[in-house]
Amino acid sequence: MAVPRVELTDTATELLRALTAQHGPVMFHQSGGCCDGSAPMCYPRTEFRVGSADVLLGRVAGDTPFWMSADQYEYWKHTHLTVDVVPGRGSGFSLEAPEGVRFLIRSRLLTDDEVLALAAEPPPATGAEYEG
Question: How far is CA 104 from CA 16, 32, 44, 96, in A?
Answer without folding.
Answer: 13, 12, 18, 11
